[in-house]
Amino acid sequence: TMGRRNITQVSDFILMGLTDSEEIRLVLFTLFLLIYLITVLGNVGMILIISLDSRLHTPMYFFLSHLSFLDLSYSSVITPKTLDNLLNSTKNISYPNCFIQMSCFIFLGATECFLLSSMAYDRYAAICNPLHYPIVMYTRRCWSLVFGCYLIGFMDSFVNGLCMSRLHFCKSNIIFHFFCDLSPILALSCTDTHDIEIIISTFAGSSLVLSLLTIAVSYVSILSTILKITSTSSKQKVFSTCASHLLGVTVFYGTMIFTYLKPSKSYSLGKDQIASVFYTIVIPMLNPLIYSLRNKEVKNALSRVMQK
C-alpha cells in the first residue's frame, strides 16, 4: 500500500517544547540560560586550565579536556534552540536542521560513552599498575583512544542517519519534545519502523553494553586493589581519584538507561522530558563542577593560572 499511497514529505517539524504556559516558559528560559552560561564558563574554563597549566598535562586531564569539549558541544547542539523555542510562539525546525541536530546529539552522546570508558581504563592503569602507567598510557595511546571514541560515535551517528533517511513523514509534523530525539521522531513516521528500530537498538545497545562493561571491569579491578591496601589514608587517597569519575558515570548512564533502554511504545512525555532535560542541559553543567570541586589539583592549577 505504501507504493500506491501519495506521500507528502514534510518540509519542517514543530517542536512542542516543555510547556504551553507563558509564565513557566519564562521561568524555564531564565533557568536554562543560567545553566547554559555556567556550562560554557565551566567547560571552557576547564579546557583553558588544563591547556595552560603544564602540571595537568597528564592522561587523566587530557581525557577530561575532551570530556569538557564534548559537554560544551553537546549542550550547544540542544540548548540554544530550546531557549529560542521558549521565547518564540513559532517553534518550527526545518527537516534538515532537525536531522543535523539529532545526528550531532547521537555522535556526541556515543563518543562520551566511550570517552568515559577510556577514563575508567586510565584510572585502572594508574591504580592497578602504577609502575607501568607511563608506559601503558603514553601520548600516542591516549590520542588513539580518543580518536577511537570519536570514530565509534561517528559510526553510530552514520548508521542512525542512514536508517532515519528511509523514513517518510506524511501524518503529522508535531514533535512532542523540546529537541529532535529518536523516539518522538520514530513515532511520527508513516513508514513501518520495526526493522529500523531493531538496527538502531542493536547499535545503541552494543555501544552502551561495551562501554559499561569496560567501566565495570576497570572498577572491579580498582576495588580489589583498594581492598588490598592496608593504610586507611592511602585507601582514601586512591578512592578520591576515582570518586569524581564514578559520580559522573553514574549520573550520565543512569539518565541514559532510564530514557532509552525501554520499548518505544512506553515513551512518556512527562518523565522522558525531565530525564532528557537532565542529560542534555544539566549534566554538561555538572561535569566540570564534579571534576573541579572535588579536585585539589584543578583548584591549585586555577590559582597558578590566575597568578600568571
UniProtKB/TrEMBL annotation:
The chain crosses the membrane at residues 26-49, 99-121, 142-159, 198-226, 238-261, 273-293. This is Olfactory receptor. Residues 42-291 form the G-protein coupled receptors family 1 profile domain. InterPro entries: GPCR_Rhodpsn, GPCR_Rhodpsn_7TM, Olfact_rcpt. It is a multi-pass membrane protein. Belongs to the G-protein coupled receptor 1 family. One of its GO terms (cellular component) is plasma membrane. Its main location: membrane. It is found in: Cell membrane; Membrane.
